[in-house]
Design goal:
The protein is mainly α. The protein contains 13 helices and no strands. The chain has one domain: Na+/H+ antiporter like fold, CATH 1.20.1530.
């Protein structure tokens, strides 16, 4: 947690305190290179993880269904909330906010290529190097979030949209929770699982490590493995579609696909697609969802 917060806060303070110094730094170039490196490391971590590789054959299809259902459900819920409460801005970008660079297909393909290259690397020459990839991901993510902090600190009105939303900002993570769970329950019924198992699996909200451990301990290793893969796939799906969602459905909707990972891995991608002024919302939503994971997993499994 501190490796996420400290670089972000340090970058913000440095940019606000020494703006002339920060302007001389190639912040955008460093952030872009760090993002690709992070995606490469993410792919390597998956390829080097025997649990992921072993589960792809037996549970991969089911996990993809869950990932699609929970991501789609959260998107629909947040988008509809945005239409109901115009102050969320989900239907468009505020005229006073600086526009982010428009994402394109080429950007998505480059990100996908980085993940696939890392996966192949972890599956072959770097096989068995899971601890290395795990540690590398932490440091690369820290560097990337330092860049996000520098960008936020250089924008004096970065937090204005969050303040303008007021208490209604809580509806964003609540919408993600509701949409994810409904999507997970629907997927469970389609795959022959109970609605409680579907709700528990969806309650990972993208945080695959914690949710899979909890479900394995409270229910079964099989459902834990399914939850692990489903939330891994949700994260990868969010990496690919977040820029497109930001352009088509609006900046607030772009927070939805990443779920709990909006506060860390997806934060730089959301910032690039939606605009840096939405980074505080993404961090707030991701943090709240992270706290909600053990609560909702326990609630659903206690109902079985």
């Amino acid at each position: 947690m501190w490796m996420i917060i400290l670089p972000l806060v340090f970058g913000y303070i440095l940019a606000a305190w020494k703006p002339k110094l920060v302007k001389k730094l190639p912040v955008e170039a460093i952030a872009n290179a760090s993002l690709l490196l992070l995606l490469l490391v993410m792919g390597g971590r998956l390829g080097a993880d025997p649990q992921v590789v072993a589960g792809l054959a037996s549970l991969g299809g089911r996990a993809l269904v869950f990932a699609g259902a929970t991501t789609g459900g959260s998107l629909v819920a947040v988008f509809l909330l945005g239409r109901a409460f115009s102050s969320l801005g989900a239907g468009g970008r505020s005229s006073s906010s600086p526009a982010a660079a428009p994402p394109d297909l080429g950007q998505t393909l480059v990100m996908l290529a980085a993940v696939l290259a890392g996966f192949f690397l972890g599956l072959t020459v770097a096989r068995g190097m899971l601890p290395f990839f795990t540690q590398a991901a932490v440091w690369v993510l820290g560097l990337l979030l330092l860049g996000v902090g520098l960008e936020l600190g250089g924008a004096s009105r970065a937090f204005a949209p969050l303040r303008q939303m007021g208490p209604v900002v809580v509806l964003v993570p609540l919408g993600i929770i509701l949409g994810s769970i409904l999507g997970g329950i629907g997927a469970a019924r389609l795959l022959g699982l109970s609605w409680q198992e579907g709700g528990a699996t969806a309650s990972g909200f993208g945080w695959y490590s914690l949710s899979s451990v909890l479900i394995t301990e409270l229910h079964s290793p099989l459902l834990g493995a399914l939850a692990f893969l489903a939330n891994v796939f949700r994260e990868l799906l969010a990496v690919l579609i977040t820029p497109l969602v930001a352009r088509r459905l609006g900046p607030v909707a772009a927070v939805a696909p990443g779920g709990a990972t909006a506060m860390d891995v997806l934060l730089p991608i959301i910032t690039r697609g939606a605009g840096r002024e939405y980074a505080p919302l993404a961090f707030f939503s991701g943090a709240l969802l992270s706290l909600a994971v053990p609560v909702f997993v326990n609630i659903f499994l206690s109902l079985i």
